[in-house]
Amino acid sequence: MNTLTVSVPNTDSTRYSLYVKGVFLNKEKRNEYVDFHLNEKYIFVVFYGFKAVRNKKTKSIHRRCYVLSAFNGSKFLPGINNKINVISAGTGRAFDGLRYLLNQLSDKDLNKLFKLPPIEWQRLIAVIANHPLSDAMYYLYQMEKKNDNIQ
What we know:
Strand order of the largest sheet: 2-5-6-7
Distance between the termini: 17 Å
Order of helices and strands: EEEEEEEHHHH
Helix content: 25-40%
Number of strands: 7
Number of helices: 4
């Protein structure tokens, strides 16, 4: 099984913070990072908080989420060891909404969700960015019914 490694910094010495959700295989701790090994054939989501230094004070002023795939990857992002394909990206409402939804789902539901095709993820991000979260939850319910055969 091919793996993809996402290195999450666990110190304040980096210029960004990182949070990852996906089909995890295992994790290992290193000095300043925790490496999460994911199954690269499934979609995964990363949440970044980029820091800016102004007047010797560090502030996290820019948050961004990415829905990613390792299939036909052409880009690199901080903390990810492989080339990846960006399926969707979001800031603000999309960032908060997606993080909230992913935290509400059980591990079993999450694993099903990460196995969905990229087009479903693009639709989900559009619903989160433009509609109330209740609509996004209903959309997830409809996706689950439609893709019931995914294990």
